[in-house]
Design brief:
Length: 386
């Protein structure tokens, strides 16, 4: 761990990420980050193409700028399928209905007066790295809110309730066969998943009120789940006795894999749910000719991260463990001494506590996929040295 200690000392001595943290507010701890004073970023030789759907994904993380463990709000990615609604906080009421003994209608102040709970977790869009223009749909923030489970208990969950549906204030036109309907953004979870102790209704992100684009005034935060489960502009919560299959559960955000069944290839369709084990190189820096590769790993308990340069051996990276947040990414780094001039390919892979390895792109788990969701295959970036 000598290397990690050096990183921490560099950070504490020189405050290399102080500028990045300034927008986060005064109460945050100073995490280590493997940056060196005076270093320069070596730009990637394979920048992603322009965003094909800028209304749906108005902002992505710029990996080359990654210089802090927590992502400042103004760099945090945004996905909005039905536009960004303007919710009036004063008129806001969160309604809880369906299979409950007591329906609730809560003002923002009533919600904020409840038990306060925080979590720092990574949110990744399940489409990230699945299509060429979507490679920065990920960020890590400290979310503040109140746990959902006690609220549902107070409402009196009825025994027949199996599913909890979260509706956003945003809606759009959807066509199902030949019928057009106006449908709200909605996602559901089983009662067991929704009442997990770390599922929060959040009104703060990194110490300030939720930015409008990230769900003001209230959003669901479900640590360990893909982004789509974290319903923004939360408007109502409904307990039902049937499974819910809206667009974002049953049509979109559906992973299709072909399996070999009795000599035939048959498709299996599953809805996007919990995050999958993944890592990616973030950036290469240079201090004189001392190069360093820095990246992130998330989506499971990170035991090891390994980096491969061109066709070389897999080399263990140093993982920063200065924060133990279970569902937040780990920042890793590898010193790259004396790289030869020319273009190089850099690939990372994470290994979890159970020994599972992030799959290669040609692994059947990835190669058998017919939709781009849940693209947790190994990410290769290209960089030109010299
Ligand atoms: N109401 C609502 N919630 C939503 C969405 C949306 O379009 N509407 N997009 C989801 C998706 S697909 C993702 S990846 C995350 C992105 O969260 P962010 O915009 O705060 O980064 O929000 C989720 N919550
Ligand atoms: Mo997403």
């Amino acid at each position: 761990m000598a290397n990690a200690d050096v990183h921490r000392r560099e950070f504490l001595t020189y405050g290399a990420t102080a500028a990045g943290l300034a927008t986060l507010g005064p109460t945050l701890p100073a995490w280590a980050f493997p940056s060196r004073p005076g270093e320069q970023v070596v730009p990637w030789a394979d920048p992603p193409p322009p965003v094909a759907a800028p209304q749906v994904v108005p902002r992505q993380l710029d990996w080359e700028q990654l210089d802090s463990w927590v992502t400042p709000n103004d760099r945090f990615f945004v996905v909005a399928h039905y536009g960004i609604p303007d919710v009036d906080a004063a008129a806001f009421r969160l309604r809880v209905s369906g299979l409950v003994d007591r329906r609730l209608s809560l003002t923002l102040d009533e919600i904020k007066a409840r038990q306060r709970q925080e979590v720092t977790c990574t949110v990744e869009c399940s489409g990230n790295h699945g299509i060429p223009w979507l490679t920065g749909a990920i960020g890590t923030a400290r979310w503040t809110g109140t746990p959902l489970a006690p609220l549902l208990r107070e409402a009196g969950l009825q025994a027949e309730g199996v599913e909890v549906v979260f509706y956003g204030a945003d809606s759009g036109e959807e066509q199902i066969r030949d019928t057009k309907v106006q449908a709200p953004f909605a996602r559901s979870m089983s009662v067991a998943d929704a009442t997990a102790a770390d599922v929060l209704l959040c009104w703060e992100m990194n110490g300030v009120a939720l930015p409008r684009e990230n769900g003001f005034p209230l959003r669901l935060v479900a640590p360990g789940w893909y982004g789509v489960a974290n319903v923004k502009w939360l408007d109502r919560i409904e307990v039902r006795d049937t499974r819910f299959a809206g667009r974002f559960m049953g049509r979109d955000y559906v992973t299709v894999r072909e399996e070999e069944v009795g000599g035939r290839r048959l498709a299996v369709e599953t809805t996007v749910g919990r995050a999958l084990l993944k890592s990616a190189p973030a950036r290469v820096t240079r201090l004189g000719d001392r190069h360093r590769i820095v990246g992130a790993a998330w989506g499971g308990p990170v035991a090891r991260v390994e980096v491969q340069i061109d066709d070389g051996p897999w080399v263990a990276a140093t993982i920063d463990r200065s924060d133990a947040a279970e569902f937040a990414w780990k920042i890793w780094s590898l010193d790259w001494n004396n790289p030869t001039s020319g273009e190089h390919a850099i690939t990372s892979r994470v290994i979890d506590a159970a020994g599972r390895i992030q799959p290669a792109m040609d692994d059947p788990w990835i190669a058998s996929k017919r939709t781009y969701w849940e693209s947790n295959g190994q990410v290769t970036r290209r960089v030109r040295i010299g």
